[in-house]
Design brief:
The complex is a heterodimer of chains A (about 90) and B (about 550).
Chain A (H helix, E strand, L loop, with lengths): L10 H21 L7 H21 L7 H27 L1
Helix pairs in contact in A: 1-2
Chain B lengths: L17 H6 L4 H29 L10 H20 L2 H14 L8 H20 L18 H4 L4 H28 L12 H33 L12 H35 L6 H14 L15 H29 L8 H24 L1 H7 L3 H31 L5 H27 L14 H31 L48
Helix pairs in contact in B: 2-3, 2-4, 2-5, 2-16, 3-5, 4-7, 4-8, 4-9, 4-14, 5-7, 7-8, 8-9, 8-10, 9-11, 9-12, 9-14, 10-11, 11-12, 12-14, 12-15, 14-15, 15-16
The chains are: A mainly alpha (about 90), B mainly alpha (about 550).
């Protein structure tokens, strides 16, 4: 863990992040109006992943943490991404 | 601290007295022992159910019970053994007791959370038992709760699902606790590559607990929601997909096999260097292979579904990865054998159990490859071959490693020695009974004996008979082991601090350990398993 100073983030940054999250939510809702077939879920998951990454980076301060922790958390996301992709392979090729 | 007078964690009197001093203790060692007692009781309950099933199968036709009772028994046996004993078992007993000591810490990172995890575990365990008696009778779905039957069955499925859900929460919290403990509380100088290999295995296990368990939690809730609210997750008539349940269930439950076996591998990895009095061979390879098994283990779940109608591409993919996961497992086996090679072997009970672990785990692993191959999988699918393979891995692997661990660390945990010769005899009886019990099931499984049937064709009678006799022999050995350990825990000779001449940190403190383990936190200057000043320091 780095020193405490690196954890200080200004309120404007949090406000921008909040706006980005709200915008992504709006896009997520709007996307359900389009018939994209199997890609609907993929798009929803992509948007959700961006939102999660943003929350973890800024609100949970991962960007201020050590490289080791960043790699560990990224590994978690890699595993979940692969699990979802592999499950979809079954459905796409069945 | 050697010859000084001290108060051990067993004798320590804090804020509370008597039973409360245990029930409300946040000391990692007391919590570890409480898990041990609860799990031991459940083990003998579930083993008794297994003996009843074996007795039913001693001859064709109905012997002592009907089919519905048999279905209930194998479900209850499976739920208790899997969710209460083998998934949490080694991690919560030896992980709680020895992880902080082995890394030079006074306790886990979150002691109160640790106690909370224990009570969640206890709640889940009691609920699982209650599901056998309340309402509509024991659940009869098998421990895997496959839909559509688990949605349709009129038995106490919701009880059992809720129990598994709560047990899962306990597992997640324990995993978080151990990860933080290892990251934040290692003694000064103990880098990851200077950490003993049991904590390495607990570390890999904890990551699986944290990452995979929520998936089974959600899945079980989805089954409850479908039963109660008719939400169509899995029922095709409602727009659901039953194969989705199998995906979700095995996405957790296959990694869960590694939750079971990785700590077992960690336990025997501690035992081999001590009883051959030489450093573990291939420290880095064993440490990295734990993480590799944990990582690849996430992506092999589909091999449980080769006959479920999944896509051919998917089956090829899962078959390939199943063969891949055998590689890091084999790396460990080669390193254990190499550790023993040329060592000063001392065939005490812990080593006997550990060597038996290798033998039985190898049979379990190799029969696993037969099922990992797409063609032979279809031949042995849902036969007693699978039952035997599973028990060779889980009982022969995790079970024997648990016995190895308890015989290894018993002097440290209780401060007393058990009768070595009696333990050796019990080991011989258990090992013989085990193989008589399960090996015939591999053979009759190949010949087509289906699993989960209370009756069978006369041609399978010889194998079933031998198997049942083997079960009786094995249980005799288990009872002998239990008597030996129970007697020793109260009347055994006082144990010295280091009865096995071990070199890891737990052997540097008194038996049983004091409340906070160390007067002064040790400073670590080299890798573990350093048996002599003349050996080269490779750290």
């Amino acid at each position: 863990m780095k020193n405490k100073e690196s954890h200080i983030t200004g309120y404007p940054t949090y406000a921008y992040v909040l706006i980005i999250l709200l915008a992504l939510t709006t896009i997520s809702v709007a996307a359900t109006g389009y018939h994209l077939g199997a890609y609907t879920v993929a798009l929803a998951l992509l948007i959700a992943s961006i939102k999660v990454a943003t929350v973890i980076s800024y609100f949970m301060h991962l960007r201020s943490e050590s490289l080791f922790l960043k790699v560990a958390v990224s590994g978690v996301f890699l595993i979940f991404t692969l699990v979802i992709i592999i499950t979809f392979f079954d459905y796409l090729f069945r | 601290m050697g010859g000084e007078t001290y108060t051990s964690f067993l004798e320590y009197k804090g804020k509370y007295k008597g039973l409360l001093a245990w029930l409300l203790s946040t000391d990692h060692k007391r919590i570890g022992l409480m898990y041990f007692y609860v799990i031991a009781v459940f083990f003998f309950i579930a083993a008794s159910l297994g003996v009843l099933m074996r007795t039913e199968l001693i001859a064709p036709g109905q012997t002592i019970m009907g089919p519905q009772m048999y279905n209930g028994l194998f479900t209850v046996h499976g739920i208790i053994m899997i969710f209460i004993i083998v998934i949490p078992g080694l991690s919560v007993i030896f992980g709680n007791f020895f992880l902080p000591i082995l890394i030079g810490a006074r306790d886990v990172a979150f002691p109160k959370l640790n106690l909370f995890s224990f009570y969640l575990f206890l709640t889940g365990a009691l609920l699982a038992v209650a599901s056998q008696f309340a309402g509509q009778g024991p659940p009869d779905t098998g421990w895997s709760f496959y839909v559509p039957y688990s949605v349709e069955s009129s038995t106490n499925v919701i009880f059992a699902l809720t129990a598994a859900f709560i047990l899962g929460f306990s597992s997640i919290l324990t995993g978080i606790n151990f990860i933080v403990t290892i990251h934040r509380m290692r003694a000064p100088g103990m880098s990851f590559m200077r950490m003993p290999l049991f904590p390495w295995s607990i570390y890999a296990t904890a990551w699986i607990q944290v990452l995979a368990t929520p998936i089974i939690g959600i899945t079980l809730l989805m089954v409850i929601a479908e039963r109660v609210f008719s939400i169509g997750f899995f029922d095709p008539a409602l727009g659901g997909d039953p194969v989705l349940f199998q995906h979700l269930f095995w996405i957790y439950s296959h990694p869960a096999v590694y939750i079971m076996i990785l700590p077992a591998m960690g336990v025997v990895t501690e035992i081999f260097p001590t009883f051959s009095q030489k450093p573990v061979f291939g420290y880095t390879a064993i440490a990295v292979s734990s993480l590799t098994i944990a990582f690849i283990g996430y992506f092999v779940w589909g091999h449980h579904m080769f006959t479920s109608g999944t896509s051919y591409f998917s089956r090829l993919f899962f078959s390939l990865l199943t063969f891949l996961v055998a590689v890091p497992s084999a790396i460990k086996v080669f390193n254990w054998v190499a550790t023993l090679y040329g060592g000063s072997i001392d065939l005490k009970p812990p080593l006997l159990y550990a060597v038996a672990f290798i033998f039985l785990f190898m049979i379990g692993g190799l029969t696993g490859l037969i099922q990992g191959a797409l063609a032979t999988n279809i031949q042995v699918h849902d036969t007693s071959f699978v039952v035997a393979h599973f028990h060779y891995i889980i009982f022969g692997g995790m079970g024997f490693a648990a016995f190895a661990g308890i015989h290894y660390w018993f002097p440290k945990m209780f401060g007393r020695m058990y009768h070595i010769r009696f333990a050796n005899i019990a080991w011989g009886i258990i090992f013989t009974g085990f193989n008589l019990f399960y090996f015939p099931q591999l053979v009759i499984g190949m010949q087509g004996m289906p699993r989960r049937y209370f009756d069978y064709l006369p041609q399978f009678n010889t194998g079933q008979f031998i198997s049942t006799i083997g079960a009786y022999i094995m249980v005799t050995g288990l009872v002998m082991m239990l008597i030996n350990l129970m007697y020793a825990s109260r009347k055994g000779a006082p144990a010295p601090a280091n009865p096995w001449k071990g070199v890891t940190l737990e052997w540097q403190i008194p038996s049983p350990p004091p409340l906070e383990n160390f007067d002064v936190i040790p400073e670590i200057k080299r890798r573990p398993y350093f048996f002599g000043e003349n050996e080269p320091d490779k750290s």
